[in-house]
Amino acid sequence: MKIFHTATDEEIKNGEVTDVYFIRTIEILRAKGIKKRVVMEVKANSLPNGYEWALLVGVEEVSRLLEGVPVDVWSMEEGEIFKGGEPVMVLEGEYTQFGHYETAILGMLCQASGVATKSARCKMAAGDKIILSFGARRMHPSLAPMIDRAAYIGGCDGISVIKSAQMLGLKPSGTMPHSLILIMGEPVRAFLAFDEVMPEDVKRVCLVDTLYDEKQEAIAAAEALGKRLFGVRLDTPESRRGNIKEILKEVRWELDLRGYDYVKIYLSGGVDEKEIEETKELVDAFGVGTAISNAPTINFAMDIVEVEGKPFAKRGKLAGKKQVWACRECGNRKITRFDAPPPICCQREMEPLLKPLLKEGKLVRELYSPEEIRSRVLTRLKSMKS
């Protein structure tokens, strides 16, 4: 008996996590002896909150889902930047062989891409400041590794969940919770205990907003730990926050005034890209939770655009198999029919973004590590606007 309300890998792979009308469609087609080869494309006609671009994440999971299924897939690379209206993935095969995977395919792409996109926007807002993913507690724990992977690919410098970090080959990032201070009964007692018990490779970052004024607890932490103190974290709740920028100014001033200018300032608790932009001159690292883990999903749809080799689509959709092209020099993009010759831009052929991923269910492309994807994402973000 399962104790958590989640689907297993096997259940997902078996197509059990799907909307029932796809199963009914396949039953009808098989009962009528209809076997037709279709081309389906995955795209989002618009992006959330007026975004001009988004990041594609979830490609690896889709490739694992469809391995062994007689279907051909072309896809943008994991971590590729795309715009509204651009197909990010194209699937071709006999419909009854893969149609029941539509729910899972979209679920894998929509949420992960949304998380990665918000992470990228936070990282862009922060510039060279550190962004940590702290949002696992806002979603079902079974999703934590997926969320943290997408957040890391999008630009987060670290993640807090142990299992996520293990899967990514990272060391988990974290400081101390309010519970430690409340159970110890007094901030300085908790700070000293943390310093005494934690191994040397754990940074001494003290939480300084539990019982007293933030600057008072920050000074107490610095006086107690001296050079061993790496940083202080403010997680001030909204009900007590007032003007957080002024509170940060006070903490920074009081620490610097006493010679503790080496102490870093961390900010967490309801942080989003707007707050990052407003406070980054005073903050060295941000812990971002809900804004990333509960990011708006990318509203991908998966639609038939060809049937038996002929362009055919529902109203409101452009029929025919398509290719998306990019000029890496100037950023220009273009959508053409799939078999069109490469457009020319900046005196060179544009790059096709939809590249072979699976051929008859066999993986035909290298899948890069999250670290390699993240590195490519950060490079490309430098040329993007939020």
> How many β strands by DSSP?
20
Arithmetic mean pLDDT: 95
CATH topology of the largest domain: nicotinate phosphoribosyltransferase
Count of structural domains:
2
Rg? 24 Å
Beta fraction: 15-25%
Q: What is the helix fraction of residues, given as a range? A: 25-40%
- Enumerate the strands of the largest sheet in spatial order, edge to edge or round the barrel: 13-12-1-5-3-19-20
Please name the CATH architecture of the largest domain. Alpha-Beta Barrel
How many helices? The count is 15
From the spread of the alpha carbons, the general shape counts as: elongated
Describe the protein:
The chain has helices at 9-13, 20-31, 59-66, 95-98, 102-126, 144-154, 162-168, 178-184, 187-197, 214-225, 238-241, 244-257, 273-279, 290-293, 370-381, and strands at 37-43, 54-55, 71-75, 81-82, 87-94, 130-133, 158-159, 205-207, 231-234, 264-268, 285-288, 301-307, 310-311, 322-326, 333-337, 344-345, 348-349, 351-352, 355-359, 362-363. With 386 residues, it is of the alpha/beta class. It has two domains: 9-115 and 296-381, Alpha-Beta Barrel (nicotinate phosphoribosyltransferase); 174-288, Alpha-Beta Barrel (TIM Barrel), CATH 3.20.20.70. A seven-stranded antiparallel sheet has the order 13-12-1-5-3-19-20. The longest helix has 25 residues, at 102-126. The two termini are 47 Å apart. The mean pLDDT is 95.
